Amino acid sequence: MSRPTQAIIDLEALRSNYRLADSLAPQSQSIAVVKANAYGHGAVPCAKALEPIVPAFAVASIDEAIELREGGIRKPILLLEGPFSFGEVQIASEHEFWLMIENHNHLAFIEQCEHKKLICKPLKCWLKMDSGMHRLGFMPFEIAAIYQKLKSTSIVHDEIVVATHFATADVEGDAFVKEQIDCFNEAISGLGCLTSLCNSAGVMAWPQAHGSWNRPGFMLYGASPFELPQHNDKTLQSVMTLQSKVISVRNVKKGEAVGYGKTWIAQRDSRIATVTVGYGDGYPRHAKNGTPILVNNQRCKLAGRVSMDMITVDVTDVGSVNIGDDVICWGKDLPINEVAHYSGTIGYELMTRMPLRPSRIYINA
Ligand SMILES: Cc1ncc(COP(=O)(O)O)c(C=O)c1O
């Protein structure tokens, strides 16, 4: 038998979360964000599962888009960071990749392609505005002129989406989101353009910002983009279950320590189960003593430092635990955000840092 550490990926849960995102914004189209290997879930299998129900996908770069094309995905794919070179503009036109145009280099690449008559099919462009996050995009005062310029460029498709990204959409009612929305609306007023403002948090909490297109990512994988528990929406279904098994069990006496650095000291005579999952499998190295984990579907607590291949769990209070018993690190009954919280990070990071070591088992294809 091989090592039982696996990431089970429920593709029906993925589709259900996409349908939820789409239904929350009935006037918008929803582009499925599958960058960073579909947030660690496997880009091609996830895109294949979604393709019949989504109009388009979004990734960070052309390499991620090519991986999807080579995997058989035919729907349009938006490159969220735009082209990194002039050559990528040509590839984009051949493969129906949509380009986020967010700086003057991008405009120069397009001009070069037009000048050299290198593009056969019109390019679909999204135009990014910096409405306050100050990460990517043209300044609001530049948008109208650049929009008109792109529109009059012969190799650019007439339908241009003007997009922006929020800095604080995960903070309910945040005044800065309202400022960004106002800034965006003012800059595009009179253009009659298509729009896109919302990521997952925007889709869930900012209906007034739903645009022609929304861009949900994290929520598709079944976790809430909000830190506060009241937003951990039960209707989202966790897509990934990181599971493993107990490989050893022992008693330790009150006062004895467990694991590297002796960071966990038994406060009473205790029973410790060793589980074959560690930071080499994506379980966070910084998870604190007390991080919740399910052993035989019962909540237990991490006891001692996370090793590369193993963790140790206090199972004193959950009855008989034996070698071969089931362990769930995160999944349907244990939100990844909760584990992330105990590790000083966010669910986004745990998902996207999942290494390939635990095999991905796809269910409900
Ligand atoms: C421009 C853009 N849109 C959408 C998303 C998806 O965001 P989320 O995963 O929070 O839904 C991201 C993710 O970082 C992004 O950078």
Automatic annotation (TrEMBL):
PROSITE patterns: ALANINE_RACEMASE. It catalyses: L-alanine = D-alanine. GO terms for molecular function: alanine racemase activity; pyridoxal phosphate binding. The active site is at residues 35, 260. Its cofactor is pyridoxal 5'-phosphate. Pfam families: Ala_racemase_C, Ala_racemase_N. Gene3D superfamilies: Alanine racemase, Lyase, Ornithine Decarboxylase, Chain A, domain 1. Substrate binds at residues 135, 308. Pathway: Amino-acid biosynthesis; D-alanine biosynthesis; D-alanine from L-alanine: step 1/1. HAMAP family: Ala_racemase (MF_01201). This is Alanine racemase. It comes from Bermanella marisrubri.
